[in-house]
């Protein structure tokens, strides 16, 4: 009750409604490990600085470790009446070791405590997202290596555009994941400063050593401004932004998996391990996991938006509004972790239909650009004129209901007399793909180079 927690100032307990809106322990108990680590560092520092006795520090540390063991074993009873993870652990410590427990909170507040815990949690979680994305990249590179010279249609506007290598397409998602990893690494580097010792908002009169706690907890340095230390949440916004962008990137490949595994495309298959059935239609194989990854940005971007709105307009320093940060961040990262794992799993699980892809790659005049390029190269015409000639040829082919390579040479020559037999060499999807040897292009020679670079790089990680 209020009298127990807040002591002298209070004579009555909180209403049930206050308790219900105020308690966060159901959510922030996920910070227990970080909270204990922070308290251990703080207690050791207090003793080193002569603020508490070494004996008390030892008692506090031993008590905290028994609490940690009980929490890990699932033998700890969390009490909403004690509001949050911090008060629950402190109260348990008091029960276990008695009076010295009361010295732990010297030169500290829950405001710097929670900021410390949360930064520690996000540091570890961002690193875990990076690891997950690395595994996803490995799965993509493995598939890309195996399919470096498989030809498929490349699309713009989801209309057949030009033939590309399946390996090339898959490596695109490796590049995107690399930027996502970079964003998490950046967020992690920027948030790695210690708020501990900022106390409630103004610092403390006790002769503490903030360098020491920062170092113990693996932070690069103590935060230089006590108000900033307890009131900034842009580190969480930054991590959520990185999470949102990563989720959006994943959702795009997820959508392609939905398309490719559909009957209409018929490009790829997921095994039973990643397919679901229908309760009514016995024939169905649905790509539910891909659809759910496609949906995840709704929740993750929603969490970012939610925290942006919580933080907007908050004056310095701590306000209780900030307590709402954790539920949003936790669900967003739970969702993202699962989405990354699902994408890595599906990527490895996919098998591709070579014939269907190659056939589709040659459809819809995907070689029209190659015809125009041929006219430029062989006849020396400006590209704009060549574009016009190729367009006329496509129009004629369309009217006859045939592909460019099925047209008799005379049809080409009626439009441009200097076209000869050699034109047919460029009019296949494979030739088109193989011709695009520019750096970053889709020719299998380039794709294999990129696969090798990625394989080497990922082996080093
Ligand atoms: N449960 C609180 C939070 O997550 C901890 C900080 C509480 N501080 C305070 N002055 N009420 O934000």
From TrEMBL:
It is found in: Cytoplasm. PANTHER family: ARGININOSUCCINATE LYASE. Gene3D superfamilies: Fumarase/aspartase (C-terminal domain), Fumarase/aspartase (Central domain), Fumarase/aspartase (N-terminal domain). The keyword Cytoplasm applies. It catalyses: 2-(N(omega)-L-arginino)succinate = fumarate + L-arginine. Belongs to the lyase 1 family. Argininosuccinate lyase subfamily. It is an enzyme of class 4 (lyase). This is Argininosuccinate lyase. InterPro entries: Arg_succ_lyase_C, Argininosuccinate_lyase, Fumarase/histidase_N, Fumarate_lyase_CS, Fumarate_lyase_fam, Fumarate_lyase_N, L-Aspartase-like. It comes from Glycocaulis abyssi.
């Amino acid at each position: 009750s209020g009298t127990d927690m807040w002591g002298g100032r209070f004579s009555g307990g909180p209403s049930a409604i206050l308790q219900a809106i105020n308690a966060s322990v159901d959510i922030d108990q996920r910070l227990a490990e970080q909270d204990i680590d922070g308290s251990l560092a703080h207690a050791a520092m207090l003793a080193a600085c002569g603020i508490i006795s070494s004996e008390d520090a030892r008692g506090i540390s031993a008590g905290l470790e028994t609490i940690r063991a009980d929490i890990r074993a699932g033998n700890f009873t969390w009490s909403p009446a004690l509001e949050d993870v911090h008060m629950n652990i402190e109260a348990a410590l008091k029960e276990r070791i008695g009076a010295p427990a009361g010295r732990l909170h010297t030169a500290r507040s829950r405001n710097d405590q929670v900021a410390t815990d949360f930064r520690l949690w996000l540091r570890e979680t961002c690193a875990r997202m990076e690891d997950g994305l690395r595994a996803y990249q490995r799965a993509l590179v493995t598939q890309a290596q195996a399919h470096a010279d498989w030809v498929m249609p490349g699309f713009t506007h989801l209309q057949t555009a030009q033939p590309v290598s399946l390996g090339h397409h898959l490596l695109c998602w490796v590049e995107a994941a690399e930027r996502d990893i970079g964003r998490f690494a950046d967020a992690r580097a920027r948030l790695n400063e210690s708020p501990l010792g900022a106390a409630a908002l103004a610092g403390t009169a006790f002769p503490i050593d903030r360098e020491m706690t920062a170092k113990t907890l693996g932070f690069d340095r103590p935060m230089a401004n006590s108000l900033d230390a307890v009131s900034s949440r842009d580190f969480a916004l930054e991590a959520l932004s990185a999470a949102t962008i990563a989720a959006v990137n994943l959702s795009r490949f997820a959508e392609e998996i939905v398309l490719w595994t559909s009957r209409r495309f018929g490009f790829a298959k997921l095994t039973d391990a990643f397919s679901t059935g229908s309760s009514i239609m016995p024939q169905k194989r649905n790509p539910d996991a891909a659809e759910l990854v496609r949906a995840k940005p709704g929740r993750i971007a929603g969490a970012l938006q939610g925290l942006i709105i919580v933080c907007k307009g908050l004056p310095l320093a701590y306000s209780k509004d900030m307590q709402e940060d954790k539920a949003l961040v936790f669900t967003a990262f739970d969702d993202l972790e699962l989405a990354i794992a699902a994408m890595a799993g599906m990527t490895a699980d996919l098998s591709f239909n070579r014939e269907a892809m190659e056939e589709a790659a040659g459809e819809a005049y995907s070689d029209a650009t190659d015809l125009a390029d041929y006219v430029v190269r062989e006849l020396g015409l400006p590209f704009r004129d060549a574009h016009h000639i190729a367009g006329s040829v496509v129009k004629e082919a369309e009217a006859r209901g045939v592909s460019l390579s099925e047209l008799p040479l005379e049809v080409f020559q009626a439009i441009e007399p200097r076209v000869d037999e050699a034109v047919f060499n460029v009019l296949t999807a494979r030739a088109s793909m193989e011709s695009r040897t520019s750096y970053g292009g889709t020719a299998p020679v380039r794709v294999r180079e990129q696969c090798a670079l990625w394989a080497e790089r990922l082996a080093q990680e």
